[in-house]
Amino acid sequence: MPACLVTGRCDDSGAGIQIRTIRGDDGLRVIPQQFTGPEIAIDIATHRLALGGKTAVNHDRPARRKQGCEIRGLCVTILHMHRPLSLHILPFVLILAGCNAPPVSPSLASVPFVPDSGSVAVRCGTLIDGLADDAAENRLVIIRDGRFERIDSGEAPPPADLPYLDLGELTCLPGLINTHVHLADIPERASDYSVYYRLTDTDNARTTTENAEVTLLTGFTTVRNVGDYFPQFVYDVRDRISAGNALGPRIQAAGPYLTIPGGGGDMVLPGYDESEIPAALRTGVASTPEEFEDAARRAVANGADFLKVMASGAVFSFGIEPGSPEMHQDDIEAVVKVAREHGLQVTAHVHSAQSGKDAVLAGVDSLEHASLLDDEAIALVAEHNVTLSMDVYNGTYTENVGREQGYPEIVMQRNFDTTEAQRIVFEKAYALGIPITYGTDGAVLPHHMGGWQFGIMVERGMKPMDAMKSATTLAADHMGMPDVGAVEVGRLGDLVAVRGNPLEDQEVMKDVAVVIKGGLAFKLPSE
Ligand SMILES: [Zn+2]
Fold it and tell me: What is the model's pLDDT at position 103?
C-alpha cells in the first residue's frame, strides 16, 4: 500500500501548532496531542506523524483504510495556532486551502478523545429540535468545534471541510437526557441484596463504566445520577468522561442517598447484622437534622453536584413502606440549607403523599417517583413550581421479570402498589401543567432500556412532543444546563437519530441509531 503524505511547514521558530483531526479517505481521526517543530509530515498509511524529520506519534486508533488514498483527500484541522500566521507557515496553509476532498463520513470517536471538539455536518430527514412544537423536515445541521454552528435547509450543500452524515431517512433529536439513573447499580441485585456487602472496587468500577457506556449508546448524552450506594465510582466515571478517558453521558451526580437508618437508601437486610454492612455503604445515613446537615456537607465535599434525600419508604427496600414518611420536614430542610449554601439543588425520593408535602415545604427542587401523591400534595407541587421525575415504565419491567428473577415478595408487592397509582398521579400532574422530566430509574430498569418509557408517557396522556421535550429542553432547564437539551445554535453539539417518527410511534426511541456528543460520533448507523 502506498504511503500518503502531506507535508508542510509550521512556524519555524518552533512555537508550534495543535492539530485536532486528520481526515483521510477513510474518515476522521482524532489526534488530540499538541505538536511543535518546523516540519510536519502525516503518513496516513502508518498513522505516524513526523515533525522535523523525527516521528512524534504512533497513533493507536485502529484504521479502516482503503487502497490508493490520495493526497487531496487528506486535510488537517487546526485547533489552535500558538502564534499569529506568518509567512513561514504559508506553505502549510496553502495545502489546507487546496484541499478539495469529497465529503467523508465521520469516524467513531474512541478513548481517549477531546470532549466537545467534534465537527460534522448532518442532514436530518426530520428534525425535532427540543424547542419548536412541530418537527422540521429536511435540515442540514452543522456542528463545528463541538457546538451547533448553523441549521440550514437540507437542500444546502454540506461544508466541504467537514465530515458529512446523511440521515435523510432518519429523525434527529437533541441528545437525550435521563433525570433518574443509578449508574453504579443494576437490576439483578434485587434478587439478593447481600451482594452489596461483597462488591469489590473492581466490580464497582467495571459496572459503573459499562453502564455509562451503555447509557450513551442508548442515546442519553446527559443524565442525573440520583444517588448510589457507591457514589465515588460515579464521580470517578463522571470525571473520566469529562476528561475524554471514558465513554458516557454528561453526569450530574447526587452522591450517596441521604436516608434514615434502615431507610430506603440504607442497605439493612433481614437476616444480616448491621455490623456486616460495609461503612462505605452508609455515608449518607443520618437520624437528626444536625446529622443530615453533616451528611449533606460530606456529600458536597466529596463531589456531589446536587443532593438526594430519601423522604419516604422505598419499593426496593425492607424498611418502612413507600406510603409512609421516613425523614421529617426539618431533616429535609437541613439538607436544603446546605445545598443552597453551595448553589446546588435537592431532589426528594417520595412515594408517600405526606412526604411529598414535607419535601415541597422544605424547599426541594424536584420529587422523584411521586407515586402516591394525593390531590392536595399535587396542588402543593404545582403551587411551589416543583418538578417531577416520574419513572412510569419500570413498574411493568419489575412485574414482568421480578418473580422469575427471584425478587423478594415484599418488593413485588410494593411495586404493584405503586405502579398504577403513579401513572394516575402522572396524568393528574400533567393535566395541571406541572413540569415532568424524563426519568426511568435506570438500575431498576436495565440501562439499555433508557428509551422504553416514552411510549407509556404518551399512552397516559402526554402529547408526543411534550414527551420528547421532557427528555431534552425541559430536563436541561431543570438541571440548570442551558448548554444541552436542544438543537440550537450555540449549544453543545449533542444529537441523536432514530429510524421512524417518534411523534407517531414512540417505540422507535428504544433503538437509537446515531449518537453524537459534542460533535463527536459515538454511534453511527450500521451499514
Ligand atoms: Zn432510583
Answer: 76
pLDDT digits (tens, 9 = 90+) for 370-383: 999 999 999 999 99
Using the predicted structure, report yes or no on whether residue 98 has a pLDDT greater than 60: no
**What is the CA(181)–ligand 1 centre distance, in A?**
6
- Gap from CA of 318 to ligand 1 centroid (Å): 15
382 and 479 co-located in one domain:
yes
Whether 64 and 162 share a structural domain: no
Kindly give the distance from the C-alpha atom of residue 301 to the centroid of ligand 1, in angstroms, as a whole number.
22
Q: Which residues are registered as beta bridge partners of 7?
A: 41
Tell me the β-bridge partners of 346. Answer: 307
Query: Nearest 5 degrees, angle CA 79-CA 85-CA 89?
Result: 90
The Å distance, Cα 506 to ligand 1 centre, comes to 23
**Averaged pLDDT, 237-258:** 98
Tell me how far apart the alpha carbons of residues 10 and 12 are, in angstroms, rounded to a whole number: 6
If asked whether residues 171 and 189 sit together in one domain, one would say no
Q: Do 77 and 203 sit in the same domain of this protein?
A: no
Please give the Cα distance from 268 to 316 (Å, whole number): 12
C-alpha cell at 119: 465537527
User: What's the 107 CA to ligand 1 centre distance in angstroms?
Assistant: 35
- Sign of the CA dihedral with 186 first, then 189, 190, and 196 last: negative
Q: Quote the crossing angle between the two packed helices 329-341 and 353-362, to the nearest 10°.
A: 40
What are the tens digits of pLDDT across the range 311-342?
999 999 888 899 999 999 999 999 999 999 99
Q: Which residues surround ligand 1, an ion (CB under 5 A)?
A: 441
> What CATH number does residue 165 fall under?
2.30.40.10
Q: How confident is the model over 227-236, as a mean pLDDT?
A: 97
Q: Are 296 and 272 contained in the same domain?
A: yes
Cα of 246 from ligand 1 centre, angstroms: 23
For residue 273, what pLDDT is reported?
93
Q: Are residues 188 and 253 in the same domain?
A: yes
- Which of the listed residues 43, 65, 97 is the one where a domain comes to its end? 97
Kindly tell me if the per-residue pLDDT of 515 is higher than 70.
yes
Distance 257 CA to ligand 1 centre (A): 10
C-alpha to C-alpha distance for 317 and 170, rounded to whole angstroms: 42
Distance 209 CA to ligand 1 centre (A): 18
Which three-class secondary structure state does DSSP give residue 155?
coil
Quick one: 447 and 505 in the same domain?
no
Instruction: Examine residue 321 and state whether it is found in any structural domain, yes or no.
Output: yes
Task: Examine the domain organization and report whether 450 and 504 are in the same domain.
Answer: no
Q: Check which CATH number belongs to the domain holding 235 and give it.
A: 3.20.20.140
Give 265 Cα–ligand 1 centroid separation in angstroms.
10
Q: Ligand 1: distance of its center to the CA of 349 in Å? A: 8
Domain extent for 260: 176-484
What sign results for the dihedral spanned by CA atoms 464, 467, 471, 472?
Answer: positive
How far away, in angstroms, is 5 Cα from ligand 1 center? Answer: 53
* Span from the CA of 332 to the centroid of ligand 1 (angstroms): 18
CA of 225 to the centre of ligand 1 (A): 9
Whole-number pLDDT of residue 88: 40
pLDDT in tens, 37-74: 444 445 444 444 443 333 333 333 333 322 222 222 23
**Cα–ligand 1 centroid distance for 137 (angstroms):** 37
Asked whether residue 107 is assigned to any structural domain, the reply reads no
200 is a domain residue: yes
Q: Would the pLDDT of 425 be above 60?
A: yes
Domain count, the chain: 3
Among 112, 31, 22, 27, residue whose Cα is nearest residue 63: 27
182 alpha carbon – ligand 1 mean position (Å): 6
